[in-house]
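> example.struct
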């Protein structure tokens, strides 16, 4: 299997170099190139055809939102993972609307960044826990504007798990999870041990056939299993 080719885009030399070192030492990942602004990112994406672009947002000449929109339009096979210091609602939502498959903050550790690069290529959506709650709130708001009605329980033979597959306790944990709470916060709210909550979350993710807790929360909202109230 060929290595995942990553284009690193950031206007700070030290950040580009650091990310290059982190990614370059990972098996199965190749740093295909670097860009210092959005315009260079477009040019390099056209030449290098990377699998993933690790994209900064606030840059000269063209920002990361504009570059993401253009790259996803002209190179739909290329995945974008935003890596930024900005957690403001406007930046987060604009990046996702532009086509980003991941949104991480720069205080993420190397393992999280590498995991996001691999994850988006596997079809996952990777959202930093610090902004995941905002994304879920925005999804719920938009669903309400569109007159969204919670889906009916899945029928036998459906590719969606039956609602009855989740126990009452699992539904309680899922409700807390959909509000963007951490395992510790869920444990405090439901008077459970943090390890017990962790086990419940793993079971819920498995039953909903989700890739991670963020996707589980989004699926729960879509299927009417949880609300943000």
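> example.seq
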């Amino acid at each position: 299997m060929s290595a995942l080719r990553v284009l690193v885009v950031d206007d700070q030399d030290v950040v580009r170099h650091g990310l290059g070192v982190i990614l370059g030492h990972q098996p199965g990942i190749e740093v295909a190139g670097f860009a210092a602004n959005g315009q260079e990112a477009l040019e390099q994406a056209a030449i290098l055809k990377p699998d993933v672009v690790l994209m900064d947002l606030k840059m000269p000449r063209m920002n990361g939102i504009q570059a993401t929109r253009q790259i996803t339009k002209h190179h739909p096979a290329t995945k974008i993972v935003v890596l930024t210091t900005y957690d403001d609602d406007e930046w987060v939502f604009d990046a996702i609307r532009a086509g980003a498959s991941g949104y991480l903050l720069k205080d993420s550790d190397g393992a999280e960044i590498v995991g996001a690069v691999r994850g988006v290529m596997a079809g996952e959506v990777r959202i930093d826990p610090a902004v995941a709650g905002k994304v879920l709130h925005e999804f719920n708001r938009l669903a309400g504007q569109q007159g969204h009605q919670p889906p009916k329980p899945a029928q036998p033979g459906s590719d969606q798990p039956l609602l009855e597959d989740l126990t009452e306790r699992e539904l309680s944990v899922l409700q807390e999870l959909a509000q963007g709470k951490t395992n510790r916060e869920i444990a405090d709210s439901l008077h459970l041990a943090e390890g017990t909550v962790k086990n419940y979350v793993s079971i819920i993710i498995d039953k909903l056939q989700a890739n991670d807790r963020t996707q589980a929360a989004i699926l729960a909202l879509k299927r009417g299993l949880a609300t943000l109230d």
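> remarks
The two ends are 46 Å apart (CA to CA).
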